[in-house]
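During the second half of the funding period, the structural biology subgroup turned its attention to how the target accommodates small molecules. The most pressing case was iron/sulfur cluster, which had performed well in the primary screen but for which no bound structure existed. We therefore specified the complex as follows and requested a full 3D prediction, including the ligand pose.
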Amino acid sequence: MASQRGNRTDRGLVERLRKRGGESILRCIQCGTCTSSCTVNAITSSYNPRRLIQIILTTGLVPGKEDVWLCATCGICVERCPRNVSPMDIILATRCLLFEEAGKIPPDSSRALRSVLRFGRAVKPRANIKERRAALGLPKLGPDSGDLSQIRGQLKAAGLLRLAKIEKKSARRNSK
Ligand code: SF4
Ligand code: SF4
């Protein structure tokens, strides 16, 4: 993932982030306003957008741990940054890199992806929800309610179908 280590900015990594919407990263002055405003940081201090930007700029590494997946994309950091940086877009760009270059997505996202493939929605409809919908005269949920080919086509175009199959095989192997 990293093209170099060291206490200087990796231009190659910045360019890859720039192409994915993270171009504002070089304007960051590490003031910490994003972190002190961040809705996720208010709940867990292990998530720190300023530090994520610092890691990228000083090590040339894309932070590969769970951190980047915790961003709730609320956009407050974007509104408050005094340098017109968009930490949110930088974090989204790192997610793209992790997926495109290392095939990484967190396990919960992988489960949601498989559910979308099977049921057309990220959370599998539970039996009690189906019963309540039927009692209210609402249409059925699930694969029997419609054609999923359009959703599958979009997932395939985004390269996610391949990933879901890889994840499925790996889950089967792990359960043996
Ligand atoms: S608020 Fe802006 S300038 Fe300050 S640390 Fe966050 S991204 Fe950098
Ligand atoms: S968009 Fe992400 S990084 Fe920015 S404040 Fe919201 S949760 Fe924090």
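Two results from this model are relevant to the next phase. The pocket of iron/sulfur cluster (ligand 1) is lined by residues 28-34, 50, 53, 81, 83, 85, 87 (CB under 6 Å). DSSP finds nine helices and no strands in the chain.
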